[in-house]
Design goal:
The protein is an alpha+beta fold. The protein has 2 domains: 148 residues, Fructose-1,6-Bisphosphatase, subunit A, domain 1 (Fructose-1,6-Bisphosphatase, Chain A, domain 1, 2-Layer Sandwich), CATH 3.30.540; 95 residues, D-Maltodextrin-Binding Protein, domain 2 (3-Layer(aba) Sandwich), CATH 3.40.190.80. The chain is built from 7 helices and 16 strands. The strands form 5 sheets. It has a 7-stranded mixed beta sheet with strand order 3-4-5-6-7-8-9, sandwiched between helices. Strands 12-16-14 form a 3-stranded antiparallel beta sheet, covered by helices on one side. The two termini are 22 Å apart.
Length: 261
């Protein structure tokens, strides 16, 4: 990554420091993963485990020291205490264990997600998949990269090919709308995968499209969105407007994540 904007150096430094935070959260998740853990249910009946709580505590305690004046919107805290209210457009969005259903099923497609939002857009994002030993980092104006087995590699979304590879949700797809949308494309392959890994697959050119019709929370998408945008892709509503953040209740409608046009 190379500096190309006045605050890029700062964002890159934060990305480096937060990589260690994501690693620590991922290690806590894997500690729980290796046990016979209990599964609880939140008010909305979505699953929650000790791994969700421990990972979020690690991320929040670090961010509160790191940027003490920045508001933080985090999934488990919001479930316990309600959504925060704050002025300003710069804040953190945190999902310290995205893909809890995958985690409960002993799959590997679950992630730690840390994103910085500024003026409605994600400018920094980290997606860590601890069971896969991967971490994706995206910084606005500086590009995206992935670390696998200790080695860093720059990544970039690819131009849409004549035959596209599509990724979709493993647990939350609206199949009729998903299938109808894909009638507009020549589809080579459709891959079902959990969590924000879908954004990262588009960001590194392993997939071309990720259409999502079911509702999501902003903390589900922000980090992966940041990685994909930094890799040259884009995330838009189906009205072709960039997906924005700090919407009412921090909820997303449908969107399309795609590679280079």
């Amino acid at each position: 990554m190379t500096a190309a904007h006045p605050d890029t150096v700062l964002l890159l430094r934060w990305a480096d420091e937060l990589t260690a935070v994501a690693d620590a959260a991922g290690a806590a998740i894997m500690d729980v993963f290796r046990t016979d853990f209990a599964v609880g249910a939140k008010v909305d009946q979505s699953p929650v485990t000790a791994a969700d709580i421990r990972a979020e505590d690690i991320v929040l305690s670090s961010l509160e020291l790191f940027t003490p004046t920045f508001p933080i919107v985090a999934e488990e805290r919001a479930a316990r205490l309600g959504l925060p209210e704050f002025n300003g457009e710069t804040f953190w969005l945190i999902d310290a264990l995205d893909g809890t259903k995958e985690f409960v099923k002993r799959g590997d497609a679950f992630t730690v997600n840390i994103a910085l939002i500024r003026d409605g857009h994600p400018v920094l994002g980290l997606v860590h998949a601890p069971a896969r030993d991967e971490i994706f980092v995206g910084v606005q104006h500086a590009g995206a990269r992935v670390r696998r087995k200790g080695a860093w590699l720059s990544i970039r979304a690819r131009h849409l090919p004549p035959r596209v590879t599509v990724v979709g949700s493993r647990s939350h797809e609206v199949k009729d709308k998903f299938d109808a949308f894909l009638e507009n494309y020549d589809v080579a392959e459709t891959i079902a995968v959990g969590s924000s890994i879908k954004f990262c697959m588009v960001a590194e050119g392993k997939a071309d499209l990720y259409p999502r019709f079911g509702p999501t929370n902003e903390w589900d998408t922000a980090a992966g969105d940041a990685v994909l945008r930094a890799a040259g892709g884009r995330v838009m509503t189906f009205d072709r407007e960039p997906l924005r953040y700090k919407k009412p209740l921090f909820r997303n409608g449908g969107f399309l994540a795609e590679g280079l046009p």
